[in-house]
Amino acid sequence: MSFFRNKKLLIFLIGFIVLVVLIGYSLRDRANVSIAEQMINDTVGWVQTIIHTPVDFVTNIFSNIDEFRNIYSENEILKEQLAQYKGLIYEVQELKEENNELRNNLTLTDSLRDYQPIQATVISRSPEQWLNEVVIDKGKQDGVNANMVVITAEGMVGKIQTANEFTSKVQLLTGFDQFNRISATISRQDEQDIFGMIEGYDDETKTLMFRIIEESDKDIKEGELIVSSGMGGVFPAGLIIGTVKEVVPDQYGLTRTALVEPSADMYEINQVMVLDRSLDVVEESDFIEEEEE
Amino acid sequence: MKRVYIPLFLFLLLILEGVATDFLPSDIVMGELLIVPHWLLVGLVFITLYYDRENTYYSVMYAIIFGLLVDVVYTGILGVYMFSYAAVVYLIHVLKKLLHVNLFVLLLMGIVGVGMSDLLIYISYTIVGIIDMFWKDYLFYRLLPTIGLNLVFFIILYPILMKRLKRWGSETNWK
């Protein structure tokens, strides 16, 4: 029985068993993390908020100096664009009003596009770069829940993976796999929209893979805008995801996959918005009742 | 009171890891390279070499506690960092008896420690199926740059920590 007297080996083996048990426990599909983990996350998040402010201040100074150089030329271009936008804003406002009036006439008050934004600040980024996660300073207390979409001004950046009471973890688009699909669409005139799914991120080409579900004979051009379709159940419709970079046939040659370049910058994220979709997900029971009527 | 400094310092490193990518230029972060700040492990190696006695295992205990905290806070997959940090710190604790500690031994331990723990993390994540990366890609895009960055951190911390840890170590009552 000398095997069991070897204390070090025994401790190592116990450690290994603990490792396997812990990994097994954390790999289950957990919508809610345990209370102990939430408390640790919130405590660390609280300290991170304090640390983040001065760090952000210092790093901002450096990036600002870097940006000073091309401010003049940028300003010229922006002025030109601003003049164009003024007309556009007026047009959009008119269209919005008209849309609202028409919706009221049809008594369609809620739409897939409506959402309540929750402003949040990124307080840390996971040092484990394989996982592509950031932590934001809003949690369940502010109305954030798991699976909500997170956007910046440029477009979609990810979704809430776990929500603690005061902080939450965001899974970035760059870390999406086949388990995190987004129902997306390319908007065309005359109801010729192209529907598909964003099926994960490809590290080699640095693009999202947009698999076209139907009518793959339609031409997709480079630079076309991909937006969320709102059909997935959680994300609101009309959020910009990215632009088409290239179209390639999939491995079986039956469907085609568009490689989509995300429009949001995944590396310098500071201010984000968490979107709470106004329209509730249709419960399965409601759906059956409606059919019976 | 001196005993509290070390956990506090490790906690600070844990939190700084979360903002570490802000310090790096965005060209490096956005490029092919995956650089991981294992600053907590760097701190633990310092503690093993300069603070811990031959017959005490405080560093291993801290490695287990703070490794688990990294798992909870940053990855969500419990146990991976805890196990790899604890194993590496224990190994360094054993190696310490064989070598006379100086700056070069410290850097050597740094290379061995950071390299081995990152390799253990790579192996566990591959087995679990979270990542799918060819070993050559891993070696050149992640392992070597990671060791390089953390060595820089070793050199930065050396003048700040070495004397203090030695002093704390000799002032502490080891029971």
UniProtKB/TrEMBL annotation, chain A:
Task: Outline the extent of the Rod shape-determining protein MreC beta-barrel core domain.
Answer: 122-275
Identify the GO cellular component terms for this protein: plasma membrane
Supply the alphabetized keyword list. Cell shape, Coiled coil, Membrane, Transmembrane, Transmembrane helix
Q: Spell out the coiled coil positions from the record.
A: 78-112
* Cited Pfam families: MreC
UniProt GO BP: regulation of cell shape
The record's annotation in InterPro entries points to:
Cell/Rod_1 (IPR042177), Cell/Rod_MreC_2 (IPR042175), MreC (IPR007221), MreC_beta-barrel_core (IPR055342)
Q: Which residues cross the membrane?
A: 9-27
Family, as annotated: Belongs to the MreC family.
Function field: Involved in formation and maintenance of cell shape.
What protein is this chain from? Answer: Cell shape-determining protein MreC
UniProt organism field: Oceanobacillus bengalensis
From TrEMBL, chain B:
One Pfam family matching this protein: MreD
InterPro entries, from UniProt? Cell_shape_determining_MreD
From the record, give the transmembrane residue ranges.
Answer: 30-51, 63-92, 104-127, 139-161
Where does this one sit in the cell?
Answer: Cell membrane
Topology versus the membrane = Multi-pass membrane protein
Classify the source by domain of life: Bacteria
State where it is primarily located: membrane
Q: Which terms are listed as keywords in the entry?
A: Cell membrane, Cell shape, Membrane, Transmembrane, Transmembrane helix
A GO-annotated cellular component? plasma membrane
GO process terms (BP): regulation of cell shape
So what family is this one in?
Belongs to the MreD family.
Q: Know the name of this protein?
A: Rod shape-determining protein MreD
Protein's organism:
Oceanobacillus bengalensis
Q: Which gene encodes it?
A: mreD
